[in-house]
Amino acid sequence: MLCLQCMTIFPVKPGQFQMWVIFLNKAKLKMNKVSFINKQTAIFLLLLQLVMLTGLQKSRAQVLTAGEAVNIAVENNFNIRISRLGEEEMKNNLTYGNAGFLPSIDLSAAQNNSITNSRQEYLSGQINERDNAKSNSFSSNLGLDWTVFDGLRMFNNYKLLGNQLRAGELRTRMQVENAISSVLINYYNIVQLHQKVVVFEKAVSLGEELTGIAREMLLIGSGSRLDLLQAEVDLNTDKSQLLDLQQRIAEASIALNQLLARDAGIEFAVEDTFRLMPGFDYSNLLQKTEAENSGLLLNNLDIEMAMNNLDIIKGSRLPVVGVNAGYNFNVQASESGFVKSGRTSGLNYGITASMSLFNGFNLKRQQQNARIGIEMAQLHLDAYQSEIRAMLLSTYTAYTSRLKMVSFEKLNLETSNINFEIAGERFRLGELSGLEYREAQKNLLLANERLINAQFEVRLLEINLLQLSGSILPE
Length: 475
What we know:
With about 475 residues, the chain is of the alpha+beta class. It folds into 2 domains: about 1-100 and about 150-320 and about 355-470, Outer membrane efflux proteins (OEP); about 105-150 and about 320-355. It is about 65% helix and about 15% strand. The chain has helices at about 15-30, 30-35, 40-60, 65-75, 80-95, 95-100, 155-220, 225-260, 280-290, 295-315, 360-430, 435-470, and strands at about 1-5, 10, 105-120, 125-150, 320-335, 340-355. Strands 3-4-5-6 form a 4-stranded antiparallel beta sheet, with no helix packed on it. A two-stranded antiparallel sheet has the order 1-2. Helix 7 runs antiparallel to helix 12 (about 435-470) and helix 10 (about 295-315) runs antiparallel to helix 11 (about 360-430). The longest helix has about 70 residues, at about 155-220. The radius of gyration is 42 Å and the shape is elongated.
């Protein structure tokens, strides 16, 4: 006999064909009565169809690939943009003037005016008295100061500024890597939720079919009320799971839109499968991690900057030599006093040298602290390197284990499908109860869910391995 619902052929024992013909005829006669049974269930089915129609409309939205999501995040993510601004600030700081190589040139000018009353009496008896005597003066100066030697501190300052810029670039890179990792994790979470929705949509469709059969069997007297209630409970359970998955998809979509720094209400569709990467080799991963991991590179740079600080402090022990030059111009006039007016102008230049001979042992203390800073930076590097190696090994071990789990779950799903098909045939032949058939269906649902979860976990572990080895950035 051919089942029109499942489009499969199953064997019919002698005498059972007539039973099925009678069953179908009676079912047709009583369809009108069935339509009035359980109105609440019918309303719920209508609502579910509306929800599924909404989901279908959403599925027609523009497909957002994982690569496109990553590109949008790299361009728009707020944390990345903030980090890039900090990097731009450090680029502005990397100049020869900020390091102390260039001279400083200053221009100054002043105009002074006064009105005074004066009375002068000389030994000869002469008296010189003047009221409201005006006087004014104008002075200007153009000066140049240039430190030509400061114990090589200007060179070490420039190296430090360059290392600070590289550190800023690495922090931006780490922010980009973290954003890409978060985007991919959220994206593939939506993918696996959609896969589960497909599984439970099939389960709901099958549950509706089984509920209809149980209801018809009850009407013709071949079934029990208990079988119908059990079928409805199972159907409602699957519907509840389906609605929960759709809610989780909505929440995950909002979270992904937030990571992409765009309107949270933008609708999009995702890829429908996991594209697992070719297997990783641990030795290559370890080599890449030690050479490209952003955290390790940043810790190495911290050691260099600590050494730069020590060199700068050492330079304070050496003399500082500078040259200076200037041009002065002064004009003054007075209605009282010995000089009525005057003007001076001229060039001045010179060289200066200074050296700190003793400053209360502060220089020694600064050097000791700088050496402690270098040792601390080295210990931070060793600790981080040990932690990264442990994380890499642990993640790789979990990755290889989950790969085997995926292969195992694929075989298990094939077995569950065969078992479910056999259970379906036996149920339609009346050799299997509804509870036993539901058990076979639950095993199939669990097998599908375990396979989806295993593939999702492998994808997450791939993302972690790529990030640890510094390979997650798009080319």
